[in-house]
Structures are given as C-alpha cells and as structure tokens.
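ugh ok so i messed up the first submission bc i forgot one of the chains. this is the corrected input, ALL of the components this time, i swear. 390 residues overall. if the numbers dont match what u have on ur side tell me asap before i send this to the collaborators (the ones from the other lab, u know who)
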Amino acid sequence: MTVNEALDHAERIITERGVGALTVAEIARAMGMRPPSLYKYFSSLHGVYDELFARGNKRLVSHVDDATQSYQPGLDRLLESTRAIMRWSILNPGLASLLFWRPIPGFQPRAETHAIAETMVQRSRADLSVAAQKGSLAPNADSDEVFRLFTAISAGLCSQQLANEPQATYETGLFTSLTDEALDMFVQRYAPSPS
Amino acid sequence: MTVNEALDHAERIITERGVGALTVAEIARAMGMRPPSLYKYFSSLHGVYDELFARGNKRLVSHVDDATQSYQPGLDRLLESTRAIMRWSILNPGLASLLFWRPIPGFQPRAETHAIAETMVQRSRADLSVAAQKGSLAPNADSDEVFRLFTAISAGLCSQQLANEPQATYETGLFTSLTDEALDMFVQRYAPSPS
DNA sequence: GTCTATATGTTGATAGAC
DNA sequence: GTCTATCAACATATAGAC
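and heres the new structure output, hopefully the right one now
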C-alpha cells in the first residue's frame, strides 16, 4: 500500500536524522512524488506523526509480546518486558523518541492511538501486583508510586543512552548495559522481608 | 543589551511552547523587529540555541552552587546537587530539555559551551569518590558505571516528569516527588557492608 | 481515485539601501 | 542598526487533468 510505503520512508528519515527532521517534502522526494500528492494519504504532517506513533506502538507491543510469550504474569515477565522495551528503543531510536518524549511542538497523538500502549503498561502494572502477591516482592511494592519509579529507572537509562551514545547497541551501550544492575537494585529494594 | 533581550524572549518561547517552537521570526516579533535584523546579533537560529545552551548551563551551575554552598564534598553534596538540578529543570523545562536531550535536528553545542557543565558533572563524580572513601558508600561505588547509573535515575525521573506532567511542581510531581525514595534506593544499594 | 499544477503564507537566510 | 528586497524551501490547500 502507498500509505505504508510513505510511512516506511518517514520512519527511515526520523531514524537517520531525528524526529524533528521529518517534512512532507522529504517523504515526497523519497517516493518520487510532489508534496501535495501526499495529502491524499495524510491530513497533515501531524497526521504522518500520528500514524508513525501508532505504528511504533504496535511494533513495540508485538516485540514485547514475542519476548515474553513464555512468561507467566509476575516479576520475571515485568523485568523481561522492560529489557524488551529498551532493546527495541535502541534499535528504533526515531520511533522511540516519538513515543516516549514530546519532541514535536503541538503534536499530541490521538487518544485512540495512546490506548494501544496503555494495555501494555497496564499489563506491566499488573505484573507488579502479581509479584507482590506471590511474594517475589514485598506487599508495599504493589503501588502506583513504586511502578512509576520502576518505569522512570528504565526510561532514564534509555533516554540517556539515546541522547549521549545513540550509535551503541543495547548490550554494549554505556547506559543500557547497566540495565540488569538497575533492575536488581529495584528488586532488592522491594524484596520481601525475611521475617 | 539587545542580545540578552532577544535571549529573554527566546527563553520564554521555548518555555511556553517547547524547544522546537523557536523561530527567528518569533523572536523578531516579540522585539518589534524584522527577522533579518536579528542576524546582526546571531549568526543563525542554531546560534540562538547555542547562546541559550550556554545561558542554561551557567544558570544551572549557579543554582546548584547556591544550593550546595554549605556542603562539604561527599555523599550529602552529591544528593543535594541532584535535587537542585531536578528542581531547576522543572522550573526551566525549556532550557532543561535543550541541555539534557537532543531535541533540535543538527544542533550540537560548541565544545567550549559543553565544558561549562562538565565541571559540575566532574564535581559530582568526585563527590561519589569521596563518599566511597569516607565510608558513606561501599568502595566499589567509586566507579564510572555506578555514577552513570546514578545520573540515569535522576534523569529518568526528570524527563518522565517533563514529558508526562509538565505543569506540576518538583514537590508535587508524580515522578519528581519520588526523588528521595530513588536516592535512598541508590544509597542503600551501595551502602558499605556492615562487616 | 490518483496524481499534477498551482497558489498562499511562513520560514531561514543573504545582500544591500538608508 | 534597522530596514527592504529577495531567495529557496517549507506546510498547506485547492482546482482540475487523466
């Protein structure tokens, strides 16, 4: 489909040159079209960003699903989901920064688009609850505050990696290579008391 | 000075509408000028970003210095510097995102500008060493890896706060209010063994 | 339906008049 | 110092060929 071709080019552009470097004219050039022709497929440049946002969300959810298929709800799935999100973000820096930051002035994804990722977030939130109920973590770990802290830790490693050493891999990156240490720090912090 | 007036307007614009919303024409409008006139003061729009970057760095360093003046090198100063950086970032979201992320395609601050902030980072790195030597932290905490993990934690809380709830204060923010919990988690993780 | 041609308004930037 | 004039590239929009 032509729309998907255009999105492929758009994705390549933001990956190579940054989210803010995307223009309608640039996509049109890559497709051998005139810029106005693209307005039959997208309502505006913001519309392209919206489709990219939706595409990124779906791809990320698929990637996390694949990585955690053999897992049961609980702590292990929570941790592996996080690793999967970080690996995907390093491999897709353009889409990742569109998903996790607000790099485009005035761009807000449609609420419906936002909901795609929300299910994944809620599953991780539920994994945290299960972990606390199973005794993998302390009972007080089952809270929105602890969950926000957990997400902020991985988001911090990820954004620092993308900002400071964007060409590195997940395994070798100065920040992403600290992921397991950070996850262990979190798990130890909220470990159940040995009473 | 006219340059500083222009930078005041530029700073207001990126604070109100985001780093990517800054244009030469917008600054000129705010000053009652025509856009070409501004090119007597700045070599380009990237030049404006460069001055904003330098200004943000100087202000942040001053703010951290003020907040830690009564502290000796060591763990307490490291923690209070971090709180100061986060408070300043929430109060100056435009400048902060310019300093800590790479939101402008193609914009890289001059090396000289970058060096201003480097002294502050090095001081915090030294505080981590002192903390380990004094026994406030374990000896193995004195490493670049642990320091990167430390900075990533606060950067994560900060960027999540700015991206998801930008209008909140440091004290009440859903993420920044977790700062002391996160710092304590870090300190406990690298606490000296009770041997 | 899909595209081209064309038009408007805005942007970053330069040259040169006053 | 500030302006006008000017340019190329941009987002956006509409009219109309095929």
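quick check: Residues 2-189 of chain A form a domain with the Tetracycline Repressor; domain 2 fold (CATH 1.10.357.10). that seems consistent at least. The helical segments of chain A are 2-17, 24-31, 45-67, 75-91, 93-100, 111-134, 144-164, 179-189.
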